[in-house]
Design a protein that fits this description.
Elements: H1 3-8, H2 14-45, H3 49-75, H4 89-119, H5 127-154, H6 157-184, H7 190-217, H8 225-233, E1 240-249, E2 252-261, H9 267-284, E3 288-297
Parallel strand pairs: 2-3
Antiparallel strand pairs: 1-2
Helix pairs in contact: 2-3, 2-5, 3-4, 3-6, 3-7, 4-6, 4-7, 5-6, 6-7
């Protein structure tokens, strides 16, 4: 497990956690759309496909914040009869929607870039356009650092994935700055080429989000089984440990394991050992929500089906 999560995941109840994420998303939303508005207005005025593409990228950042807010509203609901494991995976599913939004944006940018190739329209780069790009770049860096640190501190998939999206926006803004320098030197084709390059950055961010989110949604193992076994065997009375399974988000982990004890172990003792194992798991691995311990007699070892 990422040691940063193990050390920093906070024991927040759903209400406080949701409020923390909501406040962060609202701040980021306002800043992203101010940045997007500035880029789009200037980009259309100077007829720059790359700056317009960068503006749409920033606009998508804001749109993903709205999706995140909607996802958090569902994810913060308490456990119920139909959702005994809670609703937190809705937040992870929201991350997938953010990735799909990025793929749609890629298609739009490619379409506009080829149209620019066809019409041979020249961007009218000026000093003001450079100033806007540098200012928005500084804002993007501040937003990325703020959202990423906050997301890791409270263990939020949406904030971390959205910060990844903003990181891609920083790279695309840098590429537009270099394209503008080239345009001023007479290489006008760089405007469309840079816009196509932006697609690569956006697409990479989308793929990374899909990869990370699918691991949670498909119940991939979260913790190394050997670490679980080592922790279980440290409890007095446990002879062996097997059939270890983990799943869930990094801040909402579920652990199932089987432990073998001496055949003559009293039920009260077995229950006490089970409680100690659960406590050790929650103390040793950040983000563990639930631990199910199956007690088996040592004599059943030869009959088990692994």
């Amino acid at each position: 497990m990422d040691p940063q999560y193990k050390h920093n995941v906070m024991k927040l109840d759903n209400g406080i956690y949701a409020q923390e994420v909501k406040k962060t998303l609202i701040v980021v939303l306002v800043l992203n759309w101010l940045v997007a508005l500035a880029k789009l207005i200037v980009g259309y005025v100077i007829h720059s496909t790359s700056m317009v593409a960068d503006g749409y990228h920033s606009f998508a950042d804001g749109a993903s914040n709205i999706i995140g807010l909607f996802g958090m509203r569902i994810a913060s609901q308490p456990k119920d009869a139909d959702h005994p494991y809670g609703h937190k995976k809705y937040e992870t599913f929201t991350s997938v929607l953010i990735a799909l939004l990025l793929f749609i944006l890629c298609f739009h940018i490619v379409q506009n870039s080829f149209e620019k190739f066809r019409t041979k329209e020249v961007a009218q780069v000026n000093t003001f356009s450079f100033v806007v790009l540098f200012v928005t770049l500084v804002v993007n860096i501040a937003v990325m650092l703020y959202e990423s640190r906050k997301g890791r501190r409270i263990g939020s998939d949406v904030l971390v994935s959205d910060a990844c999206h903003t990181r891609a926006d920083i790279l695309t803004s840098c590429s537009v700055i270099f394209a503008f320098i080239g345009i001023k030197m007479g290489f006008h084709i760089l405007d469309s080429i840079t816009a196509l390059g932006i697609v690569v950055f956006i697409g990479k961010a989308a793929v990374n989000i899909i990869r990370e989110s699918s691991s949670t949604l498909c119940d991939s193992a979260v913790i190394d089984p050997r670490e679980i076994e080592k922790t279980a065997l440290s409890v007095e009375g446990v002879r062996k440990c097997h059939r270890v399974r983990t799943r869930g988000r990094k801040d909402d982990i579920y652990i199932d394991l089987h432990v073998l004890m001496d055949d003559d172990t009293r039920l009260v003792k077995a229950h006490d050992v089970s409680s100690k194992i659960e406590a050790k798991m929650k103390d040793g691995f950040g983000g563990v929500t639930d631990v199910v311990v199956h007690i088996e007699p040592l004599s059943s070892e030869g009959d088990r089906d692994d």
